[in-house]
Amino acid sequence: MNTMLLTRAAVAAALINSAVPAQTVRVAQPVSVARxxxxxxxxxxxxAINPRNPAHLLAVAILHGGVSAAYADRMKAQRCSAFVSLDxxxxxxxxxxxxxxxxxxxxxITPNGRALVTTIGTHPxxxxxxxxxxxxxxSADAGRTWDRAPVGLGRSYDHTTMAVxxxxxxxQGWIFVSSNHVTQIGDGVRRDVVxxxxxxxxxxxxxEPVFVIPNNLRMLAEMPAVLSDRTLVESFVDAVQHVxxxxxxxxxxxxxxxxxxxxxxxxxxHSFSAPMFVTDACGPPPxxxxxxxxxxxxxxxxxxxxxxxxxxxxxxPIVLTYSRDGGETWTAARPVHTTSPDSIGERIPAIAVNNxxxxxxxxxxxxxxxxxxxxxxxxxxxxxDGGARFSSSQLVxxxxxxxxxxxxxxxxxxxDGQFRLLWSDMGDGELRTTxxxxxxx
Length: 441
Description:
Elements: E1 3-7, E2 24-28, E3 31-34, E4 42-50, E5 53-63, H1 71-77, E6 79-85, E7 93-96, E8 100-109, E9 115-122, E10 133-139, E11 151-152, E12 157-164, E13 175-185, E14 189-199, E15 210-212, E16 217-226, E17 232-244, E18 249-253, E19 258-265, E20 276-282, E21 292-295, E22 306-311, E23 318-323, E24 334-335, E25 344-353, E26 359-369, E27 372-383, E28 394-399, E29 410-413, E30 419-425, E31 430-438
Antiparallel strand pairs: 1-2, 2-31, 3-31, 4-5, 5-6, 6-7, 8-9, 9-10, 10-11, 12-13, 13-14, 14-15, 16-17, 17-18, 17-19, 19-20, 21-22, 22-23, 23-24, 25-26, 26-27, 27-28, 29-30, 30-31
């Protein structure tokens, strides 16, 4: 593999009040996954890996319908695509899905090699679902080919993500689909809720959904994770109340920051615990930006530790908090990197944990100001002590662009302990990927 050897300083820009001994990070030469344009870029990419074959990768992303196009025309042209690599990311093939006005694509691969991709948008087979319809595409060979008939899962969805139970046992391969959903249940009031769908056959069928409705605020689903003890943990945030404005309910921000929560299920997603508070460091609303959530599923000393990262309120840095007891208690949120005097318009995080318990946090900055050109920066920082301290941040890529390209990008841990990063260079609309290795001290 063609790599650049990047050595980090021992003290500079670690966690604000602690230093990490010098460590070495190897970043491979970036590879092009797909080429877009400045007018029609690829964005919001996400990654999955075949548990049967570490060289088999599946990526999904949105192909923009035209930056300067009218909204209706852009939605007609906007698609989601899947990309498959059978040679550990060296080369990629592409498949376009039928969903128009497509957004929020997500992909998983089960332990028996079946893939599921969810998209939100309009599909000709499900006109009743409308533009916010949830559509699932299935593949029996981890994305090399796709079933002709997708599955329609209903209307009024937003921000769908998924997790798979990879543990041995009766639940192995179960897929959990997390979404924001507008629905009317129980007392007859339509509410924004966190919905969990469960499939026990790789997306062929789905059980009745479970709704998380802890209060009358607007809940924004974020990400699920399945621990090595089979516990399912779902993260979400709130920040918005529906207020009475002369008989009409109107969303109104009532907090100066987002509050993050998790709920836990020990019975395969049939029922969930009471909400457990994570942090209120994130913010501020109403400018919603996705947080990131991950679990250590290794057998090491940090096994089943939960990690939550977000951008700090007040246009601050990326901050991290972790839980050692399944979400019951959390540490105070601490910066992953030092702050910068630059004007950071956007800052989007991602997080993954490898088989040694090493935590890698990645983030995309979009800078801009009156006295400088805009630029997009992709950076990473690593922790080998369970999130207590982080190394100095390492710049992975930079380009001249203001946009960060959506709410998320791809980051996963590989079976050999490396990390795979996938992002959109919004300067030229290209999807790029690389591997990152954090060498033991």
